[in-house]
Design goal:
Distance between the termini: 12 Å
Strand content: 5-15%
Helix content: 40-55%
CATH topology: Rossmann fold
Number of domains: 1
Bound molecules: shikimate-3-phosphate
Strand order of the largest sheet: 2-3-1-4-5
Length: about 180
């Protein structure tokens, strides 16, 4: 099977959907952020604070190269993985790319726990909505590179998985 690569903004459900989809398809699940944390032995917020964002992006780039070289995996990317066009080029070679989207309100609710999203925590509490709106706008065209997009605002993770499975069947990526 081609890899199924989930891209999208923070809080759109890439990790929970990815894990459930992989279980349904009986294939490997790889969460990029989690893998980077495991390999570095520190959390992503710690990595941003101690080594800077550029260091994290380099780790991300190296991991994309490795993952694009394999098959049969559902891969949940980080919200900013799309910023490097080379990352997308590599993923597209061996995978089908699905973008998850959500409304600003849904993203704010799902990412309200401070301390885990360093790119949002840079904005103070009052400006969090503005930070989300601005970053979403900046990245809109990058997320549009996906083969298919699913708005998760009003859907449960299980419903999102069902929509993705239908799409994968229609494209002949999966058969069952
Ligand atoms: C980031 C999103 C995060 C993580 C890092 C940077 C971003 O992943 O990779 O904090 O730039 O949007 P999630 O989308 O899983 O929160």
């Amino acid at each position: 099977m081609k890899n199924v690569v989930l891209i999208g903004f923070m809080g759109t459900g890439k990790t929970s959907t990815g894990r459930m989809l992989a279980a349904k398809l009986g294939c490997a699940f790889i969460d990029m952020d989690q893998k980077i944390e495991e390999e570095a032995g520190i959390s992503i917020p710690e990595m941003f604070a101690q080594k800077g964002e550029a260091y994290f992006r380099e780790k991300e780039r190296q991991l994309v190269t490795y993952l694009a070289g394999r098959r049969n995996a559902v891969i949940s990317t980080g919200g900013g993985t799309v910023k490097d066009p080379e990352n997308m080029r590599q993923f597209r070679k061996t995978g089908v790319v699905i973008c998850l989207t959500a409304s600003v309100d849904a993203v704010l609710e799902r990412t309200s726990h401070r301390g885990s999203r360093p790119v949002l925590d840079q904005a103070d509490q009052g400006n969090r909505r503005q930070a989300v709106e601005q970053l979403m706008e900046e990245r809109r065209d990058l997320y549009r590179q996906a083969d298919h997009t699913v708005d998760t605002s009003e859907l449960s993770p299980l419903q999102v998985v069902e929509v993705i499975q239908r799409y994968l069947k229609s494209r002949g990526v999966i058969h069952a």
